[in-house]
Structure formats: structure tokens, C-alpha cells
Design a protein that fits this description.
The structure is a single chain. With 186 residues, the protein is mainly alpha-helical. Helices cover 36% and strands 9% of the residues. Strands 1-2 form a two-stranded antiparallel sheet. A two-stranded parallel ribbon has the order 3-4. A hairpin with a 2-residue loop joins strand 1 and strand 2. Helix 2 packs across helix 6.
């Protein structure tokens, strides 16, 4: 079994204001204001070339590691005790670190090893320059919100990208609306 070592670069804002509001939104329980903004966005964007409606769950592919091999598996149906408030037709919000870097994102075995060791929720190959710019411009408070539509095996899913982008924008709007006006420094 291969053993990898990593020398990660961690990014963290000096001001936690945005993270504090994300925590409040996460702890709201059943109330999910971003779902309303998704519906509003679909109405506004209905005439656009892209389809911003959520694709059918059967178009979503899931993979699992079985005997060190990645295999496609059926979309699981969570037990009723899992989350009785979870609607499979609504976006799932995940909180946690996002990793970047071209080499690690392109190599499945390394990507999975790194994700397991660091609780990574997503990868973005072009992520580092964005963070470098934020840090270089001395922004003390920032938050990365991503709409995720690609798969763990590196395949792109164009069908899910517009909906994922709309869901991320709706979540951002919910966060901005939750901020007190004194915190809104653009």
C-alpha cells in the first residue's frame, strides 16, 4: 500500500464573521431560506439557454471504493432515521474544506487518500490562484461557496452544472440576507 505525505497550504480568514453566520444558518434546522431563492432564480432564468432545473436523481452517478477499485453504485435511499427533514429533490449543503492543486486533483488514488486524511468535501484544480488573490488583496473575511456537479472520478457532468451554480448563488444570497447591514462591506 502506498504511503503519501503532504505539505498542504491552509487558508483561513482572519475575521470569522461570515463563518459565524454560516454556522447560524446550518443550525437553523428545518428552515432553509436558500430553497426559496433557488425557486426565484429558476423563474428569473427560465428563458436562458441553460436549464437551471434540478436534473432527475437517476442521472446522478455515484461511485464507491470496493477492493481498491472504483465502481459505479446505485443511488442510495437513506433510512428514514437518517434525516427526516431531508428532501432528495433539494440540494444537499456540505460544510468543510475544499482542496486545490492540479496534481492531487488529477490523481484519483492520491485525491482519495488526501480527502480521507483531511475531511475534504471537494476539489478544484484552479482554486489556488483565487485564494492567492484574496490573501494578496488582504481580505480579512471571506468565504468560498461552491456548487459541485463533477464526480469523484474526475468526470464532468454538464447536466448538473447550471443547477449547482444556482444552488450556490441561492445559498450566498441567503447568507447575505442574514448578515446585519453593518457587516455588509462590499
Amino acid at each position: 500500500q502506498d504511503k503519501y505525505t503532504y505539505d498542504p497550504k491552509f487558508w483561513s480568514p482572519r475575521n470569522d464573521t461570515l463563518y459565524d453566520y454560516v454556522k447560524k444558518m446550518r443550525d437553523m434546522g428545518v428552515s432553509k431560506p436558500w430553497e426559496k431563492y433557488i425557486e426565484e432564480g429558476k423563474e428569473i432564468l427560465h428563458a436562458e439557454e441553460s436549464n437551471f432545473y434540478r436534473p432527475a436523481a437517476k442521472t446522478d452517478k455515484l461511485y464507491a471504493l470496493v477492493d481498491n477499485e472504483m465502481v459505479q453504485v446505485e443511488h442510495p435511499h437513506p433510512p428514514s432515521s437518517y434525516d427526516r427533514h431531508r428532501d432528495e429533490n433539494k440540494p444537499r449543503i456540505r460544510y468543510g474544506p475544499i482542496a486545490g492543486g492540479r496534481y492531487i486533483a488529477r490523481n484519483f488514488k492520491i485525491r482519495m487518500d488526501f480527502a480521507m486524511k483531511n475531511n475534504i468535501k471537494a476539489y478544484d484544480m484552479e482554486f489556488a490562484p483565487v485564494l492567492d488573490s484574496i490573501e494578496g488583496n488582504r481580505k480579512s473575511s471571506y468565504l468560498i461557496i461552491r456548487g459541485i456537479a463533477d464526480y469523484v472520478d474526475g468526470q464532468k457532468n454538464k447536466d448538473w452544472q447550471p443547477y449547482a451554480a444556482l444552488a450556490a448563488a441561492a445559498y450566498m444570497k441567503a447568507l447575505l440576507v442574514a448578515l446585519p447591514s453593518a457587516s455588509r462591506q462590499y
